[in-house]
Design brief:
Layout: H1 8-16, H2 19-29, H3 35-47, H4 51-64, H5 69-81, H6 85-98, H7 103-116
Keywords: TPR repeat
InterPro entries: TPR-like_helical_dom_sf, TPR_rpt
TPR repeats: 35-68
């Protein structure tokens, strides 16, 4: 679910500004070496627009599990949003090394390559 699925005000009132949300994020923070918790926290931060935090969490995950495809794909999206094109290309190249036939990565690489040139 993203904030595009329901109205922004309802999304914020029911989730982002709720105690439940804060408890969820705090619980994930307590699992600093748990890859599932890190990917979940990174995704939450990405969804709510906390891109620096998302990037940091996903980078921590990649320090533990350097070939985590999900973390790399989320970082590609974050790098694009933050206009960090050099890092974006590096993450896409890493993804292609890990899984050369991945359709999402190939399409993203081709789009970014044309955009940056």
């Amino acid at each position: 679910m993203t904030n595009d699925d329901i109205g922004k005000e309802l999304w914020e009132a029911c989730w982002i500004n709720s105690e439940t949300f804060n408890q969820y994020v705090d619980e994930l923070k307590n699992k600093s070496n748990d890859t599932l918790a890190l990917i979940s926290r990174g995704k939450v931060y990405l969804i709510i627009g906390k891109y620096e935090e998302a990037y940091a969490v996903l980078t921590r995950l990649l320090e533990i599990e350097s070939e985590n495809i999900i973390a790399l794909k989320y970082r590609v999206e974050i790098n694009y949003i933050m206009k960090k094109y050099k890092e974006l290309i590096a993450d896409l190249k890493n993804l292609l090394k890990i899984k050369p036939d991945d359709a999402w990565t190939i399409e993203a690489y081709n789009l970014v390559d044309r955009f940056i040139k």
